[in-house]
Amino acid sequence: MRCYWVLGALAVVACAGGDKSASANKDSTSAANGTVASSGADLTGAGATFPYPLYSKWFADYAAKSGVKINYQSIGSGGGIRQLTEGTVDFGASDAPMSDDEMSKLKTPVFHFPTVLGAVVLTYNVPEVTQPLQLTGEVIAQIFSGKITKWNDKAIAALNSGVKLPGTDILVVHRSDGSGTTYIFTDYLSSVNADWAKAPGKGKEVQWPVGIGGKGNEGVAGQIKQTPGAIGYIELVYAKQNNLPAASIKNASGQFIAPSVESVTAAADAAAAKFPPSTDYRMSIVNGPGATAYPISSFTYLLIDKTLVDPTKGKKLVDFLRWALTDGEKEAAPLDYAPLPQSLDTRLVARLDSIKVGASGT
Amino acid sequence: MTTGGAQATPSGGDGFEEGIEGSALGDRIYSSVIWLFAVCVPVLLVLIALSIFIAGWPALHRFGLSFLTSSSWDPVNGKFGAAPAIYGTLVSSAIALLIATPLAIGVSVFLSEFAPPWLRQPVAFFVDLLAAIPSVVYGVWGIFVLIPLLRTALIPFLRDTLHLSVIPLFSGPNYGYSMLAAGMILAIMVLPYIASVSREVLMAVPRSQREAALALGATKWEMIRGALLPYAKSGIIGGVILGLGRALGETMAVTMVIGNRAEISASLFAPAYTMASLIANEFSEASGDLHLSALMAVGFVLFVITIIVNAIARWLVWEVSRTGSKG
After folding, report:
1. What are the residues facing B9 on neighbouring strands?
2. Contact residues, chain B to chain A, C-beta under 8 Å
């Protein structure tokens, strides 16, 4: 009996407290908006960590320009897709396109809007090698499958004539945490090597045949720097900002291309020219066409509902996207992100019109 | 569990409550609130266990016992077996205790029996300070100091100079990132827990116990071995268990040095995996339902293993103190 008394009292206190904070919230939002009393007019999003430095600059700059505040949680692509599926955020963000299985669970169908491009760089620690190594997809697949185990293997030597390669063991380093970077890299290996496509296949986490795992780009890069003979893959932005050695990779046109903002944008440009007009942009551009295209490139996406039920939020989101695809793109390259090619920008801005805003959801 | 407790205490407090019945409403409210708090803890624990179990059920149901015995962790094809992670958690914790326990007991015996008073406080302070270092800092230290040391000195020494490579445990590759590295990092991390508890327990041993042994003509070493340590045994085991609990659940530092390879290897020099690292690594990007469920199931297995280990430890303490009091 005594317990009920206390429980009852606590419940009353809790209710009162909850009420108070709720009304306080409402007050503060309407005050922030100044005009409308609709609560939560700011936008929330969640997802990929890779573009977060760029996105946070976008959101800050856009807030300064338009007053629209966007709250973005960089919890990872998987988490972003989950939150979008549950309808707890206004938009999601992902490094890998959503799978058909994931799409089928959505209440509202979504558009994939590419924002910028990511690329994967092969970095290594071979003190004897001073100029960038040249590698092909086939050789990379063999190394990561454990079939090539020495640096002076014939296959590597044939691609790097004149380079003195040591006879040391190759140590493969891969990401241990789930990552869009791993997805792009394994997507590439699957597209150039039929055995890899069968197993381990492509994904944000795969069962690696050999090697050790590092957590995050910094974990992989750290292990490579520490261990002579190591090779691993990291995100282009991280590689550039830390001046890590990067292998030139042979693309589909037979050219060895060094990873750079320009060569990654070139890959998107060449690939986009072949997209059908009705594309949903869930397209892999690894090992794509283009003489100057870097072959291990990929889009990162914002995921936007095709029908935005809330008219206020919907308009704000579309306006933001329009700004991001035009002015926002100019901020990408200084931060070492590869911007979308002009051709694609135009097509995506045109697609913004097909988003239904304020249409009744019922 | 909670109902048993609820019945036990009122009967225990009956005499007291009857004496002051009606005199203090405040007391009753106070005791209710305290009750509520006390009940909250076990209820919370059960709810956490239950929700992890429910989340992990699809994977446990689908793979059954093979979830515990299979070594294949393949998110692409939806095959999940946690054996390497379970093995890695148990072995890395065992290495940690093997290294840390003698060290910790040595430190605490030194502090309670040998150290001059002016040295006692500073050394105790520094040992305790080890517990205050964030685990990510241990991880960074591991990457930049311990791993290179292992790779360039310790592993070549054990494997080649001492020719221990005939034993599978000490053969194999030399990356530095290894089960051994994880065990050593964990040893340093659990050391302060064991040392701190042991020191308190040793300090609490009555003076008469020491004096009696010395009066019988025991040397200082014989006194420590024959009178001090047996008296403090159950307390020291308690400290070791506290350390073990820490080692089983440690995530960040281990992830940074263990090499994260889901494979059971006989060699201590080979990369390995632990359950906590596996969850930390894959949770944020686990997109498939089965994958997520498998990670939750790993969490549940870790939970159960922790409970089993703690139960064994409690039993050990109980057994030791029982036989100790008999003898």
Report:
1. none
2. 28-29, 31-33, 35-36, 72-77, 143-144, 147-148, 151, 175-177, 255-256, 259-262, 271, 277, 280-288, 291
Which of B43, B145, B265, B285 would best serve as a mutation to test chain A binding (most A beta carbons within 10 A)?
B285
Distance CA A96, CA A150 (A): 32
| H helix runs in chain B, sequence order | 2-19, 25-63, 66-69, 83-109, 117-130, 135-141, 147-149, 155-156, 179-203, 207-215, 220-223, 229-249, 252-258, 275-282, 289-326
Contact with chain B for residue A78, Cβ under 8 A: yes
| Distance between CA atoms of residues B217 and A232, nearest Å | 66
pTM: 0.83
CA dist., res. A248 & res. A242, Å (int): 17
Taking CA–CA distances from A226, the nearest residue in chain B reads: B148
The series of mean pLDDT values per 10 residues for chain B, 327 residues long, is 42 49 79 94 94 95 93 90 95 96 94 91 91 92 93 89 85 88 96 94 91 92 92 90 91 93 91 94 84 94 90 83 58
| Backbone phi, psi, residue A336, to 5° | 70, 15
Asked casually if ipTM beats, i.e. exceeds, 0.95, the reply is: no
Assess contact for A252 and A140: CB atoms under 8 A. no
Contact criterion met (CB < 8 Å) for A76 and B76: no
8-state DSSP, A334: G
Of chain A, the end-to-end C-alpha distance in Å amounts to 48
* Number of CB atoms found within 10 A of residue A30's CB: 15
Q: Which two tokens stand for residue B159?
A: 């494997």
